[in-house]
Design brief:
two-stranded antiparallel ribbon, single chain, alpha+beta, about 30% helix, about 90 residues
């Protein structure tokens, strides 16, 4: 399984309510704002985490599909950054 992180930017002047709609949309697509491990780590604003079934996901396709779904359901113009994690640590 691969761990992915997505950072979403809604272009223009979205409201707080728009970002709440984004959070709901992302959750419905199995993207989460927290990481659960030995501790629970909350992610920064508009940053999400998901895991895939395969070890080598096509992150460009995932980013394009995520962008398309956000622009259809949440906000007209979005930027999506997807990164695949090989390891991570939380300090704080």
């Amino acid at each position: 399984m691969a761990q992915l992180f997505a950072r979403i930017e809604l272009r223009g002047t979205p409201t707080h309510e728009t970002y709440e709609l984004l959070n709901t949309h992302m959750s419905a697509m199995f993207w989460h704002r927290t990481i659960r491990g030995t501790i629970t780590c909350k992610l920064p604003h508009a940053t999400y985490q998901a895991t895939t079934y395969g070890d080598h996901p096509d992150i460009m396709t995932i980013a394009n599909e995520l962008k398309r779904s956000i622009e259809l359901s949440v906000w007209a113009k979005a930027m999506v950054l997807i990164v695949q994690s090989t390891n991570w640590a939380e300090a704080g």
